[in-house]
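Figure 6 in text form: structure in, sequence out.
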């Protein structure tokens, strides 16, 4: 059973947009009003940072999730995590909040888990050996059904009221 999902993230888009505006403002301040000797190197550095943030802004607007019979992949392109289905030892469907997810974006949590979060609400936690990963989902029931079909006996639902 396959599953594909694209989850838009306004928070990440707004954050990267704000960073773009900040860098553009710094570029104007340094290059236009700065000390003449420092204008060119600072302008080049700020221009490159602006291009990098622009690229990330364009690519990281959405969390992409894809599950097929061999691989579960999720992440914000170009930062996509791929997990072979045969290596998954347990899957938990959970409620993602600010404290247990670390917030929006790609986050390292205190429990040693990398989380890819586009929105708070339903999420999935996966253990595969020593690796722990998590991600948000806007279609928890469809994803749960697909994971249950591919990983029988390994999927549990830990959401409040659904245990």
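Output sequence:
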């Amino acid at each position: 059973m396959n599953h594909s999902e694209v989850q838009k993230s306004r928070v990440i888009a707004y954050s990267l947009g704000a960073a773009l505006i900040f860098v553009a403002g710094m570029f104007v301040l340094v290059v236009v009003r700065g000390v003449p000797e420092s204008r060119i190197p600072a302008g080049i550095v700020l221009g490159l940072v602006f291009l990098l943030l622009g690229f990330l802004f364009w690519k990281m607007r959405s969390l992409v999730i894809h599950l097929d019979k061999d691989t579960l992949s999720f992440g914000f392109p170009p930062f996509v995590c791929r997990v072979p289905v045969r290596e998954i030892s347990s899957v938990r469907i959970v409620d993602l909040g600010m404290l247990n997810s670390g917030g929006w974006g790609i986050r390292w949590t205190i429990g040693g888990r990398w989380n890819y979060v586009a929105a708070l609400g339903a999420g999935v936690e996966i253990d595969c050996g020593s690796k722990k990963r998590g991600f948000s989902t806007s279609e928890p029931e469809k994803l749960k059904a697909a994971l249950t079909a591919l990983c029988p006996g390994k999927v549990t639902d830990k959401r409040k009221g659904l245990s």
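Caption detail: The first strand starts at residue 3 and ends at 8.
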